[in-house]
Amino acid sequence: MLSPYRVLDLTNERGLLCGQLLGDLGADVVQIEPPGGSRARRLGPFVDDVPHPDRSLYWWSYTRNKRSLVLDVTKPRGRELLLGLARSAHFLIESSDPGVMAAHGLGYDDLAAVNPGLIYVSITPFGQTGPRARWADADVVLLAAGGPLILTGDADRAPVRLPIPQAYLHAAADAAVGAMVAHHERARSGRGQHVDVSAQQSVALATQSYILCEAVGHNPVQRSAGGLVNGPLRIRLLFPARDGHVAITFLFGSAIGPFSRRLMEWIHDEGGCDAATRDKNWLAYGEALFDGREPIAEFERVKLVIEEFTRTKTKAELLAAALERGLLIAPVATIDEVLASPQLDARAYWQDLPHPELGRSIRYPGAFGKFAASPIEYRRRPPLTGEHSDEILRDDLGLDDAARAALRAAGVA
Amino acid sequence: MTQALADVRIVDFMWVMAGPAATRMLADYGAQIVRIESTRHIDTARTLAPFWQGVPGLERSGIFQNLNAGKRMTTLDLRTPEGRAVVLDLVRWADVVTESFAPGRMKALGLDWETLRAVNPRLVMLSSCLMGQTGPRASFAGYGNLAAAISGFSNLGGWPDRPPAGPFSAYTDYVSPRFIALAILAALEERRRTGTGQLIDLSQAECSLHFLGPALLDYVVNGRVAGRVGNRDRDAVPHGVFPALGDDRWIALAVESQDHWRVLCAAMDHPALRDDPRFATPEARRRNEEALEAVVATWTATQDAHATAERLQTHGVPAYAVQNSPELLRDPQLLARGHFHRVRHPEYGETTIEGTRFILSRTPAALPGTAPTFGADNEAVLREILGYDDERITALAASGALA
Lengths: 413, 403
What we know:
The complex is a heterodimer. By secondary structure, chain A is of the alpha/beta class. Chain A has 18 helices and 15 strands.
C-alpha cells in the first residue's frame, strides 16, 4: 500500500514501531543508525542470552521490513548525506529529545527547506513543547505521568506496570497514524508538515477515559487487580481457574447483563448457586447497586460464588463453556499458550522469517490486519548493523567504493 | 485551511471502546463521520463511567463523550427494511464503513461486505473484533479485558507472589485503535492510487500482540516464558514505584546510570549510601535489590511525590508522581499541550474531553464539539447528506426506523 514511499527512520527504542508499521504496509524504510549501531540493539532479551547488537530481541521485534544504514548524522558529512537522502524521501521519523535534531541542523525547518513535501515525525516523551518537554523519561515514568499506572495493580500494593515496556509503543503507533493523516493531506496539497507525538499523551488513552473523572465530576477510581474500585463498587475482572486464571467481564446493563445472566445460569445448573442468586435482574443490577436497593455485601458474595465455581474448572473448560453458552470468559494465557493458540494457527497468523546468519527461521507476530486486496508482507528480517549501508550509499547517493571507504575511515558510515 | 481528512466520509457502526476511539482520531482531523446507533440497541459505552457529576445516564457517560466527539449520528433500527435502506444510501455517500460487532452480525443484518460493495464499488470496509472474522474462535465476542487475557498481557501484570493484577481493565481496547485508524488510512491511500477499495479484517488480539514482541520472541528463540516481576526492570536499578507522603500517593523513578544513582543518594541526603558496597555498582544493586528498594521506599514515604520528582528531574533522573485524575487535570505539561478540551453540551452546558494525542504543524486538529446525543443529528444527516425531503423523513419516522 505504501510501496512508492521511502521512510528515513532515525528513531531509537522510542520510535522503532512507527517505521516498522509503515514498512509492513509496504514502504521502503531506511533505519539510520549511529556507528556501532542503535542503542535499541543493546536492549534485551538476547538470542541465547548472549548480548550482541545483532541478537537483541527488542530490536528484532520492531525493525522488520527495514534496511539499515550506518551514518553519523551529527558529523557535517553525515548530515549532508542525510539531507541528500531526504530530498527524495517521503517521511522522516525521529525520536531525539526536543531541540537535539535542530541543534544538528536537522530540525523540521532544515529538512523542509530541502524537501517541502517531507512529513517529519517526532516521537518524544512529553512532546516538543511545554514546561516539562525536556524532562527525563522511562517507561514507568511515562505511565505515571499519563495516568494508566495509578489504575494498574493490586489495591494494597504499589501501582505496577507490565514487564514489557509499553509507553513508546503507544506513542509510535500514534505516530504512524499521524504520519498517514499528514500523508493523506499531502496528496492534495503536495506539502509536508511536522507531526509532534507525546508519549505521555499517548498512554493516557489507556486510562479508559478515567483521566476525565475530575473534569466531569466523577470521583476518581482506584486500581483493583485489573478491575477497579468505583465508589463502593469493586469491579473484578480476573478470577482463579483450576490451572491458572481467567478474565470474566462480569458487568451489567442491557448489553453485558445478558452475558452475566447466562454465567449465573451455568453456575446454577451445576449447583454453584441458588435460584435467587441466578435470578437477580442482571440487566439492571448496576442501577440497583448504585441506588442501594442491592447491598454491596451481596455483590461481594456473588463474586465469591463465581470464584468458588471457576476455581473448580480448567481454563480450557471455561473457554469451551464461553464459546458454547455465550459467556464473557477468556483464559489468562501464558506466553507459550499464546504461541499455541488454535485460533492464531487457523488464521495463519505467525510468520516465519529466515535468519540465514543463524541458520534458522524465527517465528514473528504476524500482520496487524488482514487486508483482502493488498496483504501485509514480511519482506525482510530485522537488519544487521549497517547491513544495507553499501547499497544505499552507492545506489542512492552515488558513492563509489573509494568514497564509501573514506566515509568509514572517517567514522561517518 | 482545509482539514487533513476533510474529504474522508465514514459510516461508523463501531461501538463501545476500541472502534470509536479509532474513528475519534480521524474525526479530530476532519473526517466526516456518521455514527449509526439505535435506541433499541444502545452503545455499551453509554453505561460506562466516568459519568457527568457521577450519576449514570445514557447521555452522561464521559467515555462515550470522549470517544465520539466530532461525529454526527443518526439513530436507525437496522432490523427494519427502511433502516437498512438508509444505511445503503449512506454507504453510497461514504468512502469507508467501519464496524465492530461480533463476526456474522453484519451479514445477519444484510449489511455484509458483498452487499455494501455492490452499492459502492470503491468502498473500504474495516471489521474489528476480538479474535478476527475467521477461525474456530471467531464467534468469541467480548471486550478488551478478554483480549488482554487471551493475548498474554494479563498474566504479565502484577507481582510474582500474587495472582495477575494487570494491565488495567480492557487494555487491548487501547492498543488497537491506532492499528484500526492506520489500516483505514493505508487502504484509502491504496484506493487513491489504484481505485480499488477493500475489506480489512482486524483482530484486536492479533494487532495487540505486537506490543508483546520481545516476550513472544524470548519464548520462540530462548524458550523462556515471561512471568510477573512487579516493577523491576531489565536494566535500571532501583526502578519502580515507591510510596510517597499521603494516601495512595506514589513516585515512579528509574535509576539508569551511576550519575542517576549519585543524584538519588544526594537527594536522599545519604551520600554514604553511594559508596556502600551493597549499592555501589549496578551489579551490586541488582544483588541487593530488595534491601535497596527498602532504603528508597523509607525515604520516599516521607516526601511529597511532585516535589521529589521535580528535584530528581532537575538533575536528569527520570521520575514522576504517579498521577490520578485530579492531578492529571492540573499537570502543567498536559495543560500546555492542550490535552483537555472543553466542549459545549446540550444537556449540561459544558463538559471536558481529551484533545488529540499528536499535533500536526500545518493542518492541526480542529477540536470537535461534543459527542452526538440521540436523534439530534437525524435531520442533518438525512436532509443534508442524503438529500431526503420532508415527506421521506416523515415516512421514515412513522415506520419506526429512526429509533
